[in-house]
Design a protein that fits this description.
Length: 149
Amino acid sequence: MKPEVDAGARASDYAGGVIEFRIDRRSGVATYLQIVHQAKQAMRLGLLGPGDRLPTAREVVEATAVNPNTVLKAYRELEHEGLVEARRGLGTFVKKSLAVDAIDRKGPLRVQLVDWMGQAASSGLQVDDVDALYNDVRDEQYPIGEEKP
């Protein structure tokens, strides 16, 4: 699901420019949590890996117009979770990968998902329809409180 983004609410000068923070001020989700979620998503997809630098707080502020303390709060949360480390004078760097081989950008599951999304679009499904269908199937496959091996 792509949230609607306020104009200019992006930050992408970091780790080779592979991540953009997109802030949706109307989502009801705290801005720092949006940054945390998007950084984790980039780690899961392998866009950010160990040793990669996240954008500086200043870069994020300039691109998204969020408060610097908000960015720092998000980075502290990621640090608390053991995912990144702050290096004084150098920036904030990814410590560990969340990437799983099964979601490799060229892996078979992603290829199948791209095909499925194309079929959904060709069938006339709107984004909200796709989200509803996905959430329904996800809830069937991953019941709340049960962990899949």
